[in-house]
Each structure stands twice: as C-alpha cells, then as structure tokens.
Amino acid sequence: MRNQAQIKAAITSLRNNTDNAGQAKRPLYKLALTLTISTLALWATDAWAKTDAAWDFTGSMSVGRFSFTATLLQNGKVLVAGGTIPGNLTTNTAELYDPATGTFVATGSMHQARLGFSATRLQNGKVLVAGGGNDTQVALKTAELYDPATGTWSTTGNMKEGRQQHSAVLLNDGTVLVTGGNIDRTPCTTAVCVNTIAESELYNSSTGQWQKVGDMTIPRSFFTTTLLTTGKVLAVGGRIHTGPDYFDYHAIAWADLYDRTTKKWTATGTMSISREDQSGVLLPTASSS
Question: 47 pLDDT exceeds 60?
C-alpha cells in the first residue's frame, strides 16, 4: 500500500515536472480552454431551450445544515440527518421530507451528534449511520439505526476504527462496506497531522457487528464508492493529506476495485484528472470485470 510520504513525494515530483515542461504551452492551453468552454456554453444554452425541465422551490428544512446526509427511504420520503448548523455546532437532529406535500417534519434525533458521516439504507428499510466527527473533531466509531416505522434511532455495534469523511456502500448480500476516511483532524507541528486511512470494514445487519476486510491500495477521504453490476466496488479519487494543517492536501486520480469474494482491493485504471469530494453514478450499461 502506498503511504502518505510516498504519495506526497510523487505529487511534488509530478507538479515540478508539469511546471518545468508545460510553462511555454500555458497560453495555448488557456486559448483551447476558452474555446472549449465557449462551445460548451453555447451547446448547453441550446439544449436548455429544447427541454421543458425546470427547477422549482419546495419546502425548507427547519434549520440550515452542512456536511449532513440525505437518504431516500422505501416509502419515498427523504431522511435528512446530522451535520453542522448555524453557530458551527454539530447536531443530532433529523427531519423527513415528504415529496407529496413538499414539507419537512421533525423525526427522532440520533443518539450522538455527528457530521461527515455515512448513511446507508439497508435491505430491511432501516438506515445505518456510521462514524463522522463532532464538535471536538474526534472521529467516531459509533453507529446507529433509524427505523422509519417508528421514527426512532437505536444503537448498533461500533466500527473497529473511528472515521469521518469516509465512504459506505450497500453490497448485494446485504452487508455494508465502509472504507477510508480521516481518523483525526487536530492541528499539530509534525509533518502530517490529519491521518487518512485505507482500512475497510463490513457491517452485518443480521448481527449488528463489524468485520475488518482488506485495505485499499491507497488511503483516501472525500471519495466515492460505487457498486458495479459485477458486484465489485469501485473507489475513485479523493484527497490525501500531506501537511500539518487540515487544508494541506492533494486530490488524487487513482482508483481501486473491491472483490466481495476475496474481500481484497486491487488497483485499477486512473482518472484523467485528480478529483476530490466528487460524485459518481452507475450508468445503466456500465459493467466491469
């Protein structure tokens, strides 16, 4: 597995090579980029004129939130939970959005306030929330289950490793794969103080327990995991921290594949550009071996 020092050296080398070799060509890149953006803008304007699609206002949440989760329930409602609210406070409150009425109503609060966590709808309709951070910026190990039938939360087994800004995905067998993330974000004076991890765990909804599985080939946070039609999981992009401050990080382009039969990760193709905090969607015709 690549460690953070190796990644920092590789990124620094790549940046230096790009600066030295590409200096004379930057004006051409700028011209090509300008032309491309102009063409896309014209195409987008024409496409918009030919469609009837439009956005409209709907009801507002009871409080503004940042770094929260929103999960579609089996009944068509949307569960909004946690996050940071005005005053820079982490909240445990939750709300339900009803598309039939366009309104939000309060529902049961989580046992623990959290932000930067994952929320996954299980096959039984309940929602698993795991990890995240709190007002002390400590990575949480705890997990909870939301029951739409009662509107209440119950605790479940703790993860083996506390983590925040990680990724979670429901597998075909009903287990939940939780991967990567940051285990702390406390400023300090050493080389790298935000520790990003590559570790993965599986949640068994039948037992409420977690099992450690293989590590990704690279630590990452703020990335995506997508279940493919083959049953494998694709982990893409993200960030790796390279300095003492929380904002000392680099986006990465590497991708990994998780094999549910071996419970191990292997490297796969690399994106054309680095991305972090991006989104990923499985297309109807997508497949991967």
Answer: no
- Are 202 and 221 spatial neighbours (Cβ–Cβ below 8 Å)? no
CATH number of 163-279: 2.120.10.80
> Per DSSP, what are the bridge partners of residue 147?
152
Which distant-in-sequence residues (6+ apart) come within 8 Å of 68 by Cβ? 80, 81, 82, 83, 84, 115
CATH 2.40.128 domain span(s) along the chain:
59-158
pLDDT value of position 27: 35
CATH class, 59-158 region: mainly beta
Question: Measured between alpha carbons, how far is 29 from 286 in angstroms, rounded to an integer?
Answer: 32
pTM above threshold 0.85: no
Beta strand 255-259 with 233-236 is: antiparallel
Going by C-beta distance under 8 Å and a sequence separation of 6 or more, which residues neighbour residue 59?
A: 97, 101, 102, 103, 104
CATH 2.120.10.80 domain position(s) in the chain: 163-279
| 186: confidence class by pLDDT, cuts 50, 70, 90 | low
Q: Which residue has the tokens 């990452």?
A: 220
What totals of helices (H) and strands (E) does the chain contain, helices first? 2, 20
Pairing of β 143-147 and β 152-156: antiparallel
Among candidates 96, 108, 90, 91, which has minimal Cα distance to 71? Answer: 96
Q: Count the helix, strand and coil residues of the chain and give each as a percent rounded to the nearest 5.
A: 15, 30, 55
Cα(226)–Cα(187) distance, integer angstroms: 32
**For residue 49, pLDDT beyond 60:** no
Of the CA atoms within 13 Å of residue 190, those in its CB half-sphere come to 8
